[in-house]
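S1.2 Input.
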Amino acid sequence: MIELPEKIAEFFPYKDVRPFQDEFIRTIHDAIREGRSAIVEGSNGLGKTIAVLCACLPLAEEENLKILYVARTHRQHERVIEELRAVSTRHRVSGVSVRGRHEMCLNKLVRENAQDSRGVMEICEMLKSKNRCPYYRNIEDKRRQSFEVQEFIASCPHTASEIQKVCRSRNLCSYELVKASLEKTTVIALSYLYVFDPTVRNAFLKSLDTSLHKIILIVDEAHNLPETAVEIASNTLTLYAVKQAEEEAKRFQHKEISTFAKVLVKEIQSRRRKL
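S1.3 Output.
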């Protein structure tokens, strides 16, 4: 019978350890304890997600570290939460899956006027600065409810969609409350962009309020990183930005520019409707 070290076994939620799963766990655990990086390849069915979590969680608890589990898809993020829930049957643990502002936003105005994450960010920041987003404003106006939701998020593993549902019922900004709860959360499952996009990473680390040497980084399916790097390096122009350019050109009486921007907006909207 395969046995795990006692401290790791406290977190392992299943009755049996699969063949080679113990070796996988020990390899990762030893690498983290010694401050090294580890690249591990495992076949389907090995139980890699629970193995890597159980390898990291004892050290995270012992040294007060955060675990960032980056993966490409929402399904992979939810899988992390599922395994953390299994862990929580044996040992208390907190975790959350994080989605971008454009997917967490509950404001109808933002959703209807932004076609991508950058557009959502631009409109969101504008509404917040002018105190015109009720969901964001309610975080302050409904302090007690906001605090309760933050405690709920940090109490046990939750998916982003579950948090969004709770916030919708209370008219609170789910994106901001998730950010506010990260300080008390041990495991955070999120997309590659939060780590590998410099702009997104800098903003995220500020909200996380944790130094890099206090973070364990798990990169799932790292063979996807080259494609992600290409996406990050690609430039985009949002519909919202073009609309803003049109308004600014009108304000400064640049008729040719405003006319061009107006035509471009119509063309983009026309092509979008045909998709």
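S1.4 Remarks. The two ends are 57 Å apart (CA to CA).
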